[in-house]
Amino acid sequence: MFSGSSSPPKDKTEATVPGIDTNSLNSLQPENASPREKRFSPPGAGFFRRQSEDQGPAGEKKRRSSTVTKAASFFSNAKNSLSLNGTREGTSFSTSPQVSDSPLQKLGRMDPALSVPQGSFNNSAGESVPTTRSSFRVGVTEDKNRKCRRTMEDTHAYLYNFLGTPAPTASPDINGNDPPRDANDSQTSEDSLNAVETDNGYFAIFDGHAGTFAAEWCGKKLHLILEEVMRKSPSTPVPELLDQTFTSVDQQLEKLPLKNSGCTAVTAVLRWEDRVPSSNSATGSAALAPAAAAVKGDASSDALETSVQDTPTEGSIPKLQDRAVRQRVLYTANVGDARIVLCRNGKALRLSYDHKGSDENEGKRITNAGGLILNNRVNGVLAVTRALGDTYLKDLVTGHPYTTETVIQPDADEFIILACDGLWDVCSDQEAVDLIRNVQDAQQASKILVDHALARFSTDNLSCMVIRLDSNRVKDVVSNKVDPIGVDGDPSANLNRGVSEADKIVEGARRSMANAGLADNPELAEQANEEILEKMASNDNQEPGPELNLDSNHQLPSVDVLSQSNVPQESK
């Protein structure tokens, strides 16, 4: 998965063979043994068979029976070694003892958000589809890369109607910014549970290591935590809210049983905003809600010295709103080496930062925190220097993301690419843009990139998401040719009051749990944690993922404190 890591050795217990009953193998007679059974005979078995006339039929029968027993044991061990790998096709509420639930499914018994069924294209956030007023289209393709990887540790999530953008004077119950309603509330009937159409997008890819748990958990939960953080602080700049969200995710993962699991992450929020000119912003403008909050704060503080030109008084807030212009804004945040690229006039603009052990700045941060960079890995173990999870290394491997804020230019910005390092290890940013620039269908474009990575012999799991922007729709909204949506106070907002799309999806999962007799129960949480810990203890000998494996043939230096001279600079 990570740069510099070797692909894992082929495991002979890669998969079970369907259609074979391991119990029936023991009862087979020697003369009826099939070629499949003979394939697992130990070396030298053919020599013993050639000497069968000298040793007698009793010895031959005993040897063949031993071979069949070994084959049965082989299949049984293969099944057990894969028992922790949960399905990604959706969460089942079945309590049948014959089905081994994944850790995420066990925790889903007490958290409806973790029980949300996978949506189209394996969307971890649930089912989300565009509307006639959507100004973008999402396409996503994933591939386990079965020639190199035994399991799929990537997850992804996207929403077409993420939380509405707050306005300074709007009431909090418009455009889905009201808090999630209680499941027992009489107002949350099937007819009244409507999702507000916002045309605000959420996109994310999580690349797991040391198992799938952290990536799957983030795919189900991070967007919900982000919405909660945004509701609590509507006037805080979005990059700060993204940082708070990643910190909260890290804190919650630390409380869960699988503390060795982690994931890199790249997330993006594409939303409509009313923005005003600002000389203090790198983009030349600022969102209206934070700007208005700053105005109120400056007006109420006598100690704060402000500029008359940049900071109007409280009475000028209506004038500030009159100056506001509706714009499309893209916010990004990433930890690790998952990457996001924007195509602007055919040129690739990277909106993320690769947090790797080979990066000079990240290496200095690790050493200043008391860690070491050995073979471009944190303490010789982890190839990335920032990630979600990885509790055992959290003092060094921080979850604070690199964030960006970009105002979309309708005439220049064409599409966005999110992908894990499985693509970027074998494909440059510009090459990816060139491959799909003339492909208008987002789904086809994502498949082209994944197929290209496979053809280039990528050795990692592959996940690629392409967001194709509708420039005509964006220009119509900016020029007021169509009714705007997505911001509190829009004329159409009062006609479609309801909850956010994410809250509606979770409420649907909660009702499914209730219908299955699996209501929220704190006792189930404790039981799930105990079961997961027991499962972990029984799988201590399971081979770790290649992201955490060192090359056994490579000699580690005794002490190699990172210095400026021995670490190559990472391209930005």
Tell me the number of strands: 14
Helix coverage percent of residues?
25-40%
Radius of gyration, Cα only, in angstroms?
27 Å
Overall pLDDT: 74
Key phrases:
disordered C terminus, five-stranded antiparallel beta sheet, alpha+beta, Phosphatase 2c, domain 1, single chain, 2 domains, 572 residues, globular, 31% helix, disordered N terminus
Explain how this protein is built.
- With 572 residues, this protein is α+β, with helices and mostly antiparallel strands.
- Helices cover 31% and strands 16% of the residues.
- The chain contains 17 helices and 14 strands.
- A hairpin with a 2-residue loop joins strand 7 (339-344) and strand 8 (347-350).
- Helix 7 packs across helix 8.
- It is globular and about 60 Å long.
Quickly describe the structure.
31% of the residues lie in helices and 16% in strands.
Fold topology:
Blueprint: H1 22-25, H2 35-38, H3 45-50, H4 52-55, H5 57-81, H6 103-107, E1 136-143, E2 154-159, E3 201-209, H7 213-232, H8 238-254, E4 262-277, E5 285-287, H9 288-300, H10 317-323, E6 325-335, E7 339-344, E8 347-350, H11 360-368, E9 373-374, E10 377-378, E11 388-389, E12 402-407, E13 413-419, H12 421-424, H13 429-436, H14 442-455, E14 462-469, H15 471-478, H16 501-515, H17 522-538
Antiparallel strand pairs: 1-14, 2-3, 3-4, 4-5, 4-6, 4-11, 6-12, 7-8, 7-13, 9-10, 13-14
